UniProtKB/TrEMBL annotation:
MF term (GO), any: DNA binding
Keywords, comma-separated and alphabetical: DNA-binding
HTH cro/C1-type domain mapped to chain residues: 12-66
Record-linked Pfam families: HTH_31 (PF13560)
The protein's name: Unannotated protein
Gene Ontology CC: one annotated term: cytosol
Organism: freshwater metagenome
InterPro entries: Cro/C1-type_HTH, Lambda_DNA-bd_dom_sf, TransReg_Diox_bact_type
Amino acid sequence: MPSQLLLLGKRIRHFRALAGLTLDQVSDATGIAASQLSLVETGKREPKLTALTALASTFGVAVTDLLSDEAPDRRSELEIELNRITASPLYAKLGLSSVRASKTLPTEALEAIVGLYREMERRERNSAATPEEARRANTQLQLLMQEKGNYLPEIDQVAEEMVKAAGHETGALMHRTVADIAASLGFTLIYVDDLPHSARSVTDLENGRIYLPPASIPGGHGLRAMALQAVAHRVLGHKKPIDYADFLKQRLEINYFAAACLMPRTRSIAFLQAAKKERNIAIEDFRDAFGVTHEAAALRFTNLATHHLDLRSHLLRVNDDGGVFRGYANDGLQIPMDANGAIEGQIVCRKWAARMAFDRTNRTTEFYQYTDTPAGTFFDSTQTGTSTSEEFSISVGVSFNEAKWFRGRDTQNRQVSTCPHEGCCKQPSSDLAARWAGKAWPSARMHSHVLSPLPSGQFPGVDDTEVYAFLDRHAKLG
């Protein structure tokens, strides 16, 4: 039975009891049959407005008192909750018989049943998504962004207005300006050296503080981006994620907002359009003009390229083992994917620029290459970098016909890739196979993530106990 009808029935019974009236007495006063009143009080029948008016008059209360959304007492609240529980899909999955909140069921037992189910619901909500579910959700998000040309104009608009309101007009966005943006929303940036290890930043909503680590990553982009990402949750009106897909969507949006603040749309478009006019688009120039990382500049380029430069493009971040960490393409490049369309962890052809760039001894500048693939010929500019755990490459590219707008288009580097055909680069040559087949026994490196569960919790991977202890400690410090 609908919980709202049961709540209404509980309130009618409550006010009847307060008035000291029996069902028969109410029936005599209102002309409503006692049997009908009983069905109303048990939530099995919805009363008409005329009946509600008559009942309210008989009880000496307003109709709005009967229609309030608050349970009249604790017992009623528990009975309504039990009704919701036994009607839920999660309860149905348990295969248990229905429990009725009869008068003989002690309130203590009712409290225990409801409490146990609420805990089971909480664990169900906070349980980790399976890796397959997470990959599926991420793939759907990637497809959506591909349809949008990797462009979120509403977030761009909000970010540009906030940066302008903070008084920033030229050059790289300063830490001071980021602090001013946070202050405009009622938050103070505080840098601490005891941030919980499971969190990149922590926002204290009660005291208006955003806690950040004390040191930035090279280039100064790190702390500004972290602060802007924390601010973005407030600006974009995010609620606690309801599932892993929602978490991934929020993460994408806060990253986009941070990039849109660091590289405001109007100035970025002007810079890139000028470079295109000169046939000299270079991600390294875009990076340096706004004081951000190469990866941030590459991603931002793809945000704006389709809608404002009339360029379809692709982007790849590839780890030194050849696995895709991040990818985007709307120019026809066929990024390797599994049967479900997921690209993360898929191995890129050894002949693509994303992997050829690792073979260079001089990596201070971008590496340029044309690659002939079954889907066409593509031009790429690639830069390599190093994280705390591995090397990686960032490739931005376009189809052959659009290479004319980019620096490095005159490169003589060219490779032919027939991947995903196994004979391209995944099989050893016949000479090597004849020499070593059956004679090699490598000890495979075990990747820690293979056996690791997906991070659990409403904010996946975050240790609530650690975060709450951190907030309590700093709240006491003032």
